[in-house]
Amino acid sequence: MGGIDTILLYSSVIFINVGISKGNMIFINIGAYSLMVLSSVVCTMLVNKFGGYRVLFVGTNVLIFSQVLFTISQALTYLAPTVMPTLAVVSIFIYLAAWSAGINGSVFAVLGEITTDENRTAMYGYAAVSFWIFTWIGAFVPPYLLLGYRAYAMTPWLVWTVLMLLYIIFCLPDTRGKRSEDIQTQFSQGFFISDCLAP
């Protein structure tokens, strides 16, 4: 799911690697998790105003931006050793805000909008199983990514997030203001380019 488990489970390691002292770790983690709580509240308001699809679309784009920014900050640390660690921390905070205000709350709103009463329970079940499988992968793969890829450890998650964005654009309809029957008709027509940017 875009590497959120990597960030959450290994944030202390990531922050230490970018130069945050262990003494300041508690403060930076409190700030990061507080940002996530506030961003989740914002997500609820955004989903209510713009619909789950648009929040998911924008949140995924911001997530990609933060992953690219983090990778650049890690790969180019030697060019600006005092600036790049700060940029890495900023990119993680952008990532956490984008996750909490974008993908985390909107993905289940979209799932509720694209399913019918008959299949919604099963779809939430499949989503929960998928979530836990990816959480397991996200928990056990990152140490090896950090060891092997070092500065490029977020690259596999970046690729995954880009694939998610392509799926959102080409396979999900913008559900805002549409009836369930209209959405199901769109799905029965096969793949389509979504009207995500339509007014």
Explained architecture:
- This protein has 199 residues and is mainly alpha-helical.
- The chain has a single domain (4-188), classed as Growth Hormone, Chain: A, CATH 1.20.1250.
- The chain has 8 helices and no strands.
- It has helices at residues 4-17, 25-50, 52-75, 84-114, 120-140, 142-149, 155-171, 180-188.
- α2 (25-50) packs parallel to α4 (84-114), α3 (52-75) runs antiparallel to α4 (84-114) and α3 runs antiparallel to α7 (155-171).
- It is elongated, with a radius of gyration of 18 Å.
In round numbers, the mean pLDDT is: 85
The CATH topology turns out to be: Growth Hormone, Chain: A
- Structural classification: mainly alpha
If you compute it from the alpha carbons, what radius of gyration comes out, rounded to the nearest whole angstrom?
18 Å
How many helix segments?
8
CATH homologous superfamily identity: MFS general substrate transporter like domains
State which percent range the strand residues make up: under 5%
Largest sheet: none
* Spatial shape: elongated
Helix content: over 70%
Task: Write the element-wise H/E pattern from the N-terminal end onward.
Answer: HHHHHHHH
CATH class: Mainly Alpha
Low-confidence stretches: none
Tell me the count of domains: 1
User: Judging by the overall fold, what is the CATH architecture?
Assistant: Up-down Bundle
Q: Can you count the beta strands?
A: 0
Distance between the termini: 28 Å
